[in-house]
Every structure is written in C-alpha cells, then in structure tokens.
Amino acid sequence: MRIRVTTRADLFEQRKQQHIERGYRIEDEQPTPVNGLCWFSAVQELPDSDPIGELVAQALERQQLLGE
To answer: Among 1, 20, 49, 52, which one is most buried in terms of CB atoms within 10 A?
Structure first.
C-alpha cells in the first residue's frame, strides 16, 4: 500500500520517523517546503498470506488425515 503524506515543514522529519517506525518504507520525498508544506511517499508491504485460505487448507488436510 502506498500513501502520500503531506505535513507542515516543521513536522516533516518527525512524521517521516513515525511512518518508518510503523513499518513503512520511504520511497520519495519533497523536503523543501512549498507554501509551508512538505511531502513524502511511504510504502507498506502487505503480506501475501490469506488467513481464511490457510484455515480452509488446514481443515482440508485434517479431513484427509482423518479419512473423512
């Protein structure tokens, strides 16, 4: 998931650090203020796992093991 965060220039580094701590990767940024605002693009990789699909697969495996 990609988001673009626009923030006041005085909060730019703090907001960037907050997103890094939350697991986002910073890809692009505009640290020079334009009309007092800066921005950066942050990307968070979503897991490929499908929890429902995994539960279904486990249930099917149990059925096969039990011979049902």
So the answer is: 20
pLDDT (0 to 100) of residue 46: 72
Q: pTM value?
A: 0.64
Distance CA 42, CA 14 (A): 14
Q: What is the pLDDT of residue 28?
A: 95
**Alpha-carbon span 11 to 59, nearest angstrom:** 49
Q: CA–CA separation, 21 vs 25, rounded Å?
A: 9
DSSP state of 9: G
What pLDDT is attached to residue 58? 76
In angstroms, what CA-CA distances link 6 with 24, 28, 36? 15, 12, 10
